[in-house]
Amino acid sequence: MKTPLRLNFAHLPTPIEHLPRLSAHVGGAQIYVKRDDQTGLAFGGNKTRKLEFLVAEAQAQGAKTLISAGAAQSNHCRQTAAAATRYGFECILVLNGDEPDRPSANLLLDKLFGARIVWVADRNNRDRILHATYEQSLTDGGMPYLVPYGGSSPTGALGYTFAIEELMEQGGAFDWIVFGTSSGGTHAGLTLGKRLFGFKGQILGISIDEDENWLKEHVSNLASDASEMLGAREQFEITDILANDQYCKAGYSVLTDLEREAVQLFAKYEGLLLDPVYTGRAAGGMIDLIRTDFFKTRDKVLFWHTGGTPSLFADKYAAIIE
Question: Considering the domain 16-45+152-321, what is its CATH architecture?
Fold first, then answer.
């Protein structure tokens, strides 16, 4: 196996914890959690693993500026801005939405890390503005490196390929891994890692906002492409990918009873914080699948906590406690 370029700033390995009180309350399968909310960079989260590889690649290319994009409360952008300032890059973030009078949560942290924000009122224009921002930085001598949405490129996916190696060193005896999936990098990395490092359980992505068929095609292609960075190509098919899109019908970042209950249950029974957008939706889906006997009673289900907790402090999610 080839050794890819990698920096080491994540706090690894992240711990695995059993959640006995939540398991007893929900009934059925035993729930465990992998604490990637504790990866250490700017309140942690799954993007930190990806950025170890992405920032190393940017350094190798001689870049001076990291440019990325996302929603106004993007966890990915928050961690990208933190990694940029830690390693001496400028950072430009293209965020969709309207600039608030007072920044909060992730957006507040973006500004604290010195990121320059480019606002896009219409999300449909975000790709165009992102490309224009990159080209302008190139013209200005900024030597930019484009960090993909969610860090989800073959390079970024390696973060979760090696996360499976970490899991196996911790025992790895789980029947299921469940997590939130959107841009597909975490999903692809876990899928590739399962094959390379011999994880025997199933990997199920609960969609945050994407169609299940799109996810299966995208993740299988991304996992295949990522494998080439480590050696011979491993070909993945859509049948290798498990995804569930039944919990995202309300739309991205729309708070429903599903997310509200999951956040409240994790807090009430385990003193563990989820976020309203990603882990709240994924955990809500997992809880529903346990209640409807999708998982067997004897199953050990590992919920991979991908972080995002600063979003709890965004004004728009105050209704989480209603």
Answer: 3-Layer(aba) Sandwich (3.40)
